[in-house]
Amino acid sequence: MRTHKLRRRRALRINRSRSGNVAIFLLIILYGAFMALPLVYAISSSLKPLDELWAYPPRFFVQNPTFKNFRDLMQLTGDGWVPFSRYILNTVLVAVAGTGGHLILSSMCAYVFAKHQFPGRNLMFQTVVLSLMFSTAVTAIPSYLIMAKLRLLDSLFSIILPAFGSSLGLYLMKQFMETNIPDTLLEAARIDGSGEWHTFWRIVMPLVKPAWLTLIIFSFQGLWNTGSTTFIQSEQSKTLNYVLSQIVTAGVARQGTAAAATIVMMLVPIVMFVLSQSNIVETVATSGMKD
Amino acid sequence: MAKQTVSAAPAARRKSLLRRMFDKRVCYAFALPYMLFFFVFTVLPVLTSVVLSFTDFNMLEMPGFVGFANYTRLLFNDSIFIKAIKNTIILAVAIGPGGYLLSLIFAWFINELQPKLRAVVTLLFYAPSICGNGYLIWQVMFSSDDYGYVNSLLLRLGVIQEPILFFSNPQYMMGLIILVSLWSAMGTGFLSFIAGFQGMEKSYYEAGAIDGIRNRFQELWFITLPMMRPQMMFSAVMSITSAFNVGPVITALCSYPSTDYAAHTIMNHLTDYGSIRYEMGYASAIATVLFVIMIGSNLLCKRLIGKVGQ
Questions:
Q1: CA-based nearest residue to A125, from A139, A142, A106, A140
Q2: Which of A37, A217, A280, B16 lies in the 20 to 30 Å Cα band around B158?
Q3: What residues of A are in contact with residue B54 (Cβ under 8 Å)?
Q4: What's the rounded Cα separation, in Å, for the pair A41 and A36?
């Protein structure tokens, strides 16, 4: 009975040696420890009471965990003359509006890039691909001039509108649509008299759910992590990350609070990723419709 | 269609191009809203930057044309820039291909795990790149006094006699920057690999086994990677981006300017002239040089990835 079971298992996983599996597992554990160490240290530090933060020799793990650092963080951010809720509102507004607009506009554009031939298509797409490498920091100077011309300075639109045209989402979407939407399906829709607009919303978009989930995660993360920007000066238009970064860089005296701030900033993107990760796996598994 | 128009007379060709564009007007309508934002906030800044690099723009006076003066000054009269180029290349070579290979290898490893465990490990590897400035934790760990965790550990083990100024000693800076960058290198490209591995059809592997694929390395090289070229190219581009954009990380960890400019990169040089000295023309020339280097490495990647599985 047992050997039978074993043989069946081996048949399911072809070309897999036991020693290879062990080696892979060990390497994952080793590198995983390296990846996890700073995160664990951050969590542990954020829970340390003051005397443990200054204990010598410093300990890696917390002995008497306390939420005092998080309470300090609340107090610290509540003391500012702009209410803390304002920063949260700004960040949520920027992340939701930017992600929403980006998702719709880039999906529309990606659809024609992936499934239609028209003059100038390749030129436009190649430009987008090239721009993937140019971070906003490199073009900070001319961007500032353009923002000034468009009268977008000191407004949240200076973060939201560039997010609409960010290149990462378009690229991902186009690649995904190209391989995951069979041309025959589109042709069938065309024969049935479906217009492009209708085809896009009713046939293409439901089929690329994994891609838009991915796109939402990336865009949201980027926007959530938007910190200080040269485009915004007034305090009431600043974002959560800006305030928390101020605390993190404030110095060693606030080590515990800094760790708490880092944890708070990490929490939302990580939770979002956990929620959509399961969704992605699920949709990838069910949308296995290939030409 | 294209072949027919090539042989036609120029006038007729132009007409037929307009005709073709008109026939596809729906496509342009779909692409236009996105392309508008993309052009204004991405293409236009790059073009402006290139144009400004030939001027002496300083935010106050009208820019005047100076020809290649900014470039000659960069290459011949700016020893710090030469140092920045050297550092940028060292970091790019370590972080770009390094982060890329780590992403690929560990995505491959993780794909061998059970689905539940796979999700957890993916999250663990991806988490450092999500948290925007999570790398600041390294500064606390490598803090320069003996309260710093690494220093106190080394002191107690007797490896060192006095605490090391990790982020101000040129001897350690570059190594630490590489370490921190690799830590947060499992980002978008890594996820793309994970998705690519999961999306592979099982039947290819079965067919491969029948055709004589004997181990998982052959499977990876002859079946998986050739199928994953789109993900590989994408990941490569993302690696290039992160490799050339370590500037802010360096400023945050080693402060600005780093001791002896030991960790000074082109990006830092750009920020220096752009946001501190307001020599916008000169800063734009630095940005343009960075663009050229990035495009060059992109082309190199394309060529390398084309060879996969052959």
A1: A106
A2: A37
A3: none
A4: 8
For chain B (length 310 residues), average pLDDT per consecutive 10?
A: 47 72 88 94 91 85 84 87 88 87 90 85 86 75 77 82 80 87 84 78 82 82 81 79 80 77 84 82 89 85 76
Asked whether the beta carbons of B225 and B309 are under 8 A apart, the reply is yes
The CA distance from B122 to B113, in Å, is: 10
pLDDT in tens, chain A (291 residues): 444 444 444 444 667 778 888 888 899 999 998 888 888 888 888 888 878 877 777 777 888 888 888 888 777 777 766 777 788 888 889 999 999 999 999 999 999 998 998 999 999 988 888 888 777 777 888 888 898 889 988 888 988 999 999 888 888 888 788 877 889 999 999 898 888 899 999 989 988 877 878 788 888 888 888 766 778 877 778 888 787 777 766 655 567 787 888 888 888 888 888 887 765 544 433 322 232
Residues of B whose CB is below 8 A from A119: 17, 20-21, 24
Neighbours of A109 (CB within 10 A): 27
Residue-level pLDDT at A100: 94
Say whether A35 and B274 touch across the interface (CB within 8 A): no
Other Cβ atoms within 10 Å of A6 Cβ, number: 10
Residue contact B147–A266, C-beta within 8 A? no
The domain B68-306 is placed in CATH, from the list 3.40.50.300, 3.40.50.2300, 2.60.40.3210, 1.10.3720.10, at 1.10.3720.10
Q: How far, in Å, CA of B137 to CA of A142, rounded?
A: 33
Q: Give pTM, 2 decimals.
A: 0.81
In angstroms, rounded to a whole number, what is the distance separating the alpha carbons of residues B269 and B80?
Answer: 8
Q: Measured between CA atoms, how close is A274 to chain B, in angstroms?
A: 7
Distance CA B201, CA A55 (A): 55
Structure tokens at A5: 């079971």
Using an 8 Å Cβ cutoff, are A49 and A64 in contact? Answer: yes
3-state secondary structure of B166: coil
Distance from CA of B193 to the nearest CA of A (A): 13
The single residue listed with the structure tokens 């100077």 is A141
For B133, the closest of A32, A143, A248 (CB atoms) is A248
Res A101: pLDDT: 95
B146 touches chain A (CB under 8 A): yes
Q: Give the 3-state secondary structure of residue A226.
A: coil
What tokens were used for A202?
Answer: 């009713």
Query: Tokens 């470039």 appear where?
Result: B71
DSSP A241: H
pLDDT at B13: 60
Contact A261, A187 (CB under 8 A): no
- B216 and A105: CB-CB below 8 Å? no
Domain boundaries, chain B: 1-52, 68-306
Domains, chain A, with CATH or none: 2-66 (no CATH), 74-286 (1.10.3720.10)
Of B109, B136, B280, the CB nearest to A248: B136
